[in-house]
Amino acid sequence: MYKWFEKYFAFSRRELNGICLLSVFLLMLWLIPRIYALRDNNDGSDLSAQIADIDHFLATVDARRSAVGNKKPVSIPETPMVEVEYFRFDPNGLAVVDWKRLGLSDRQIRMIKNYEAKGGQFRKKEDFKKIYAINEADYARLAAYIDIEEIHAPSPATPGRSSDRDGNAVVEREERSTLFLDLNTADSLELQFLPGIGPVFASRIVRFRDLLGGFHNISQLMDVYGFDSLRFDGVKTQVYVDTGKVKKIAVNSADYDHLRSHPFISHKLANAIVQYRKQHGPYQSLTDLLDIVIMDKRIFRKIVPYLTVSND
């Protein structure tokens, strides 16, 4: 009997140590909740004192509310309005302090100065309300005082041009208003004579013209990077295009690379034009291009001025 008990219920020293540790751990788990329960019961003995403190606090709040209710409301002084001073003025180059005298905000003045910095000019009083920050009310109250200085013709010795301190050519206002340039022949210096066109836009126009092979319509200026409708409206009456100077691509002999170099012809369309020509022979007319699967009428109208079936 002893041997049987020893076989199934005897423990080694290591196992006894483990049992002791486990027993201590279980005892702690049993004691901890009861210790916290005793602590909570001890705190309950002071409940009446806590209730008294809460009643005292509520009474203090009621007293403060009644005191505030008996006070007269404090009047907040109104911010004084900025006094506007009206006088006749030329908006071209007007000083910031004078714009403030006219009652314009810092934001409005900043936009006017940015417009001037980009080469913008006010030629007539209606141009003033084209500034985005100028609303109808501001224009209505200031229109009667706008007095744009008369532009004098340039001296005969230097017709329409002068030089700044860096030696760069500067066009006079009179010449800007009488220019009529061919977009397909004007160089970057001549393009700078147009209103709102500085060196950056002049070089962009020339680069884009070279990639196209020439402009066939003045509206293509809107395809120049950064060119907006306001700038276009300022130059559209002073430019034209001679379509006879447009360089055309012969679709019956041009390879993929030549076609792809045009900004209006994607690499997929260039490949399709070449493959269609290989399968069906030379194009008899430009309308044959409409038989290409990926060619639609919008793309066709855009590229057809730059294509020809002739190899001349």
UniProtKB/TrEMBL annotation:
SUPFAM superfamilies: RuvA domain 2-like. Gene3D superfamilies: AF1531-like domain. GO terms for biological process: protein secretion by the type II secretion system. GO terms for cellular component: type II protein secretion system complex. InterPro entries: Endo/Exo/Phosphatase_dom_1, RuvA_2-like. PANTHER family: ENDONUCLEASE/EXONUCLEASE/PHOSPHATASE FAMILY DOMAIN-CONTAINING PROTEIN 1 (PTHR21180), ENDONUCLEASE_EXONUCLEASE_PHOSPHATASE FAMILY DOMAIN-CONTAINING PROTEIN 1 (PTHR21180:SF32). This is Competence protein ComEA. The lineage of its organism: Bacteria, Pseudomonadati, Bacteroidota, Sphingobacteriia, Sphingobacteriales.
